[in-house]
């Protein structure tokens, strides 16, 4: 996709962090923008900021871990703008802790947020894009944690590896059909976002049970502190929009914005071919 003016971008997780930056860049390129988030307060702030820029904008408060909500987003988008050209499946969360300690609800929460929401976005919007027959693009936000593994975050790595594989396999199918839809998977390292505060926006069915011992455990507390530290010391978020849109223009499938990890990714592949277990000394800092 080379031209963006007057086209329609749908962005999930648009109220904060990466999603907000993608919304700003969409507006700068004179797109019509659909903002989707469970965080209504910050969503309305972004909506107002985009409106002040002269952008045609639609904000939808929705929990994209529920398919019926994603269907509603699709319907409201088409009712308002009549088309969708660019889809950012960006909503996501982070949890940490050992597999043997984490409550099953944590697994349900991260799977629904980081995997199911991406599936639902593609299921709802790909048929619309196919019917349009115009140049369209889908960007699924994964992470460099979907290309590398580190200690302490098995659930997060699981979800992001799944996101990468899901995007690759879906792209294979679209390419085999000579589809009008191009795809990218965005795999950044740490960025200064609000991701470590995602618990503030949990859907009620995944709410933390204060009587569950795990949430008073050392593992839980250390995991939250590690997440806070690595996110707050990441790169500024204001570089995200331009980097991602440049990759879309260049039709790059893998969007890697942290070159310091490229050699680590290369070593992982080499070790894999040689049957060597992942090297914990190479984990992402």
Please tag this protein with its features.
285 residues; alpha/beta; Rossmann fold; seven-stranded parallel beta sheet; 8 helices; oxidoreductase activity, acting on the CH-OH group of donors, NAD or NADP as acceptor; oxidoreductase; SDR_fam
Give a written overview of the molecule.
With 285 residues, the chain is of the alpha/beta class. The protein has one domain: Rossmann fold (3-Layer(aba) Sandwich). It is 45% helix and 12% strand. The chain contains eight helices and seven strands; from the N terminus they run E-H-E-H-E-H-E-H-E-H-E-H-H-E-H. The chain has helices at 17-28, 40-52, 67-81, 104-132, 154-176, 218-232, 240-249, 262-273; strands spanning 8-12, 32-37, 57-61, 86-89, 136-141, 181-186, 254-255. The protein has a seven-stranded parallel beta sheet with strand order 3-2-1-4-5-6-7, sandwiched between helices. Strand 5, helix 5 and strand 6 form a beta-alpha-beta unit. Helix 1 (17-28) crosses helix 7. The longest helix is centred in the middle third of the chain and has 29 residues, at 104-132. Belongs to the short-chain dehydrogenases/reductases (SDR) family. It comes from Natranaerobius thermophilus (strain ATCC BAA-1301 / DSM 18059 / JW/NM-WN-LF).
Q: Average pLDDT value?
A: 93
Give, in spatial order, the strands making up the sheet with the most strands: 3-2-1-4-5-6-7
CATH topology: the name is Rossmann fold
CATH class category name:
Alpha Beta
For the record, give the distance between the C-alpha atoms at the N and C termini, rounded to a whole number. 34 Å
Judged by helices, strands and strand pairing, the structural class is: alpha/beta
Provide the gyration radius in Å. Answer: 19 Å
Approximate shape: globular
CATH superfamily membership, which one?
Answer: NAD(P)-binding Rossmann-like Domain
Strand composition percent: 5-15%
Number of strands: 7
Ranges where pLDDT stays below 50 over 5 or more residues in a row are: none
Tell me which CATH architecture applies here: 3-Layer(aba) Sandwich
Task: Tell me roughly what share of residues is in helical segments.
Answer: 40-55%
